[in-house]
Predict the structure.
Amino acid sequence: MTEPKFVRTVSCPECKKPTEWRADNPWRPFCSERCKLIDIGAWASDGYCVPGQDAPLSEDDA
């Protein structure tokens, strides 16, 4: 497969450093493994959350 002539550049969501959006970038959309791990850590420690209401508990959950 040939390389595309245009490669999209995006800002890393963590550090804002420009990074290429390429299929061979294993950390996409991040610029590095470090930034990816920082983001995963923030999700795991409830640093991020998805807004909305809690789902009601079903009888099986009680």
Remarks:
- The mean pLDDT is 87.
- The two ends are 53 Å apart (CA to CA).
